[in-house]
Design brief:
The chain is mainly beta and 327 residues long. It is built from 3 helices and 21 strands. The longest helix has 20 residues.
């Protein structure tokens, strides 16, 4: 196995979306690990304090080629990473080994006509928020005494599809802008592969976020991480699923929360049926008794997200195996 390093430069990042025609930033083998550097805030560089705009980010802002500006999304993503031998129908297992903010400042933005309350909070607002990386907290508002523990994660973990110019804002069966705060260091996400090489991209670092991400953004943060990419030809899935040290996480994405919940619930039932051999009815009952369904985000239009948290502790040891995925 080989360890790689990807620095975020104008040659290794792309803006606004995913595309199968992008030149890969790097090629890896299954089982390789990668140190990844990601930047955020491409569209706020001209308003940001000096400690936010590193020379590398400024070079990206000023010199990113038009070919690496894919669609209208705001996200600056590192990649894509080409995984040798990955073919449509395979599954890419992404293990998040380390996730660390790289700068002591992030930002939060309210966008006009976006968010959970677009009519009540209808004026754009941009805040740069200091991060106390030594103590792993942020105080917001500054001077309020309200201190929030940092729980960093990558909002976007996704692969390319046959669509040549896919906006980075909505999540889907390809992953993408999931914005699930449970996907912290120590977790894994499994993504269906749609194109040769998978073409995996990562970014949208968040230092902290509440479920729902109601005002459109979290504390958006330039983030470094270490990931392992493993090709799984023994799995068959059509939508992302994740695993933390304590839980299985199923997901549902749809235009409404009701529809997203229905998809997440059905995906949980399918997981239980395929991996524990429960009947569909027993799996449905178990979901009502023991699975917590949470709002992932309500702002990544046109797709809202719901995820189900199934504690691995309630399942008999050896009663489920990830290699049995069939949904």
């Amino acid at each position: 196995m080989t360890h790689h390093i990807i620095k975020a430069t104008k040659y290794t990042v792309h803006l606004g979306g995913f595309s199968h025609s992008l030149e890969p930033a790097i090629t890896v083998n299954s089982g390789d690990t990668v140190d990844v550097e990601t930047y955020t805030g491409f569209h706020v560089c001209h308003k940001a304090p000096p400690e936010f705009v590193t020379p590398a980010l400024l070079d990206i802002y000023e010199n990113l080629s038009p070919q690496r500006k894919i669609a209208g999304g705001p996200h600056l993503l590192t990649g894509p990473i080409f995984v040798r031998d990955a073919q449509p129908g395979d599954v890419l297992e992404v293990t998040l080994k380390h996730i660390t903010p790289s700068l002591p400042v992030g930002f939060n933005a309210i966008r006009k006509n976006w968010g959970a309350l677009p009519e009540e909070f209808n004026q754009p607002a941009l805040r740069f928020i200091p991060l106390d990386l030594e103590n792993n907290v942020t105080e917001f508002p500054t001077g309020s005494g309200i201190k929030i523990p940092l729980k960093p994660f990558f909002g976007i973990l996704g692969v390319a599809t046959a669509e040549n110019s896919r906006n980075s804002i909505p999540p889907g069966n390809y992953g993408g802008n999931i914005d699930n705060r449970e996907l912290q260091a120590g977790s894994k996400i499994f993504l269906p592969v749609f194109v040769p090489g998978a073409l995996f991209s990562i970014g949208d670092g968040h230092s902290v976020q509440g479920d729902g991400e109601v005002n459109v953004t979290a504390i958006e943060t330039s983030m470094n991480g270490t990931i392992e990419l493993k090709l799984r030809k023994d799995l068959q899935i059509s939508t992302p699923i994740a695993e933390t040290p304590t839980d299985i996480i199923t997901m549902g994405f749809a235009p409404t929360l009701d529809q997203a919940l229905e998809k997440a619930l059905k995906n949980t039932i399918n997981f239980l049926v395929s991996c524990t051999k429960l009947s569909p009815e027993d799996a449905y009952v178990l979901c009502s008794l023991a699975v917590s369904f949470r709002i992932t985000q309500v702002v990544n239009l046109p797709q809202k997200g719901v995820h189900g948290m199934l504690s691995k502790a309630i399942l008999p040891e050896g009663s489920w195996e990830l290699s049995n995925f069939r949904f």
